[in-house]
Amino acid sequence: MSSAPVSDAEWGLYKQLYISAEGRVIDTGNVDVSHSEGQGIGLLLSVHNQDRAVFDRIWQWTRTNLQTRKDKLFSWKWVPSGGSTADPNNATDGDLFIAWALYRAGRQWNEASYLEAAREISREVRAKLLRPSPYGLLLLPGEQGFVKDDQITVNLSYWMFPALQDLNQLDPAPEWGQLIESGLKLLQTGRFGRWQLPADWLRLADKPEIATDFKPRFGYDAIRIPLYLIWAKLDTPDNLKPFRDFWGYFKSASFVPAWSNLTDDSVDSYNAFPGIQAIISLSNLPGSGRAENHQRLRPKLSPDQAYYSASLLFLTTMAAQESGMR
């Protein structure tokens, strides 16, 4: 799906700040590690910005350094101090980002090898990372560590709705539609705290609960949920209501917090970083003229921003443009 790239200056700055000459996407807010999510985002943004040279460098580094398991999934974390993967477990959002980017690259540049690599990853996700449950088909965050005593821990920001829609075009299977359905249902039933927000991590027992192994927050993971809803044109008023209520509560304040503790309704004392501000702006824009208005209103990339904030800025630009095309 074609859409307008960000400005050459902003894309050039992103590459300068976060992408090494070898194609490693650097998480500058997390001791410069690299992870499959970051590599996938770098690939996706390279396709969007029609930069095949950078795409190929990122893909080569990712294949060499992260696609080291016995399957086609990716080890989730690489640390520069040892120059190796720190954990062979996968992260499903990273796998989905990479498959999604390869699918788009294959279509954009008519490259069959990208499409085949995307299908291989997609099929591995369907074979190894899906579980039936009373809540519908679930997406495991990783192959290991998220199923215990018949309870499954999930992360609803891994339900990347626009990616699931596109992968159904690449690798048609009923599971993609079932995942979209289960994700939307869990967003309705897994709401907590004063603003009825989704938790970053959810444990599915007799009813959805906030996972106790993680901070009980609507925070840096779940912030991506409204982005994906809008991108996939699933942004009904009810689906967006918790997020709009939360951010709207602070409309007259001098800041908007990045997170809320869902057990006591406390909030971050610092202002949300620019990438989150861009999602907030996007969530309040009507569909008509969304791309133009978002591009005008969103914060701009600056050298002092960390990788994650910068990546959210660019992903919101893509979502603003493409939500009007789907």
Descriptive overview:
The protein has 326 residues and is α+β, with helices and mostly antiparallel strands. The chain has a domain at 1-127: Glycosyltransferase, CATH 1.50.10.10. The protein is 47% helix and 10% strand. The protein is built from twelve helices and eleven strands. A four-stranded antiparallel beta sheet has the order 6-7-8-9, with no helix packed on it. Helix 4 (92-109) packs antiparallel against helix 5 and helix 10 packs parallel to helix 12 (307-322). The longest helix is centred in the N-terminal third of the chain and has 18 residues, at 92-109. The protein is globular. It starts with 7 loop residues before the first helix and ends with a helix.
List the helices and strands and how they pair.
Blueprint: H1 8-18, E1 34-35, H2 36-48, H3 52-65, E2 75-79, E3 84-90, H4 92-109, H5 112-128, E4 130-131, E5 138-139, E6 147-148, E7 151-154, H6 161-170, H7 174-189, E8 202-204, E9 208-210, E10 217-218, H8 224-231, H9 237-249, E11 260-261, H10 274-283, H11 290-297, H12 307-322
Antiparallel strand pairs: 1-2, 2-3, 4-5, 6-7, 7-8, 8-9, 10-11
Helix pairs in contact: 2-3, 2-4, 2-12, 4-5, 4-6, 6-7, 8-12, 10-12, 11-12
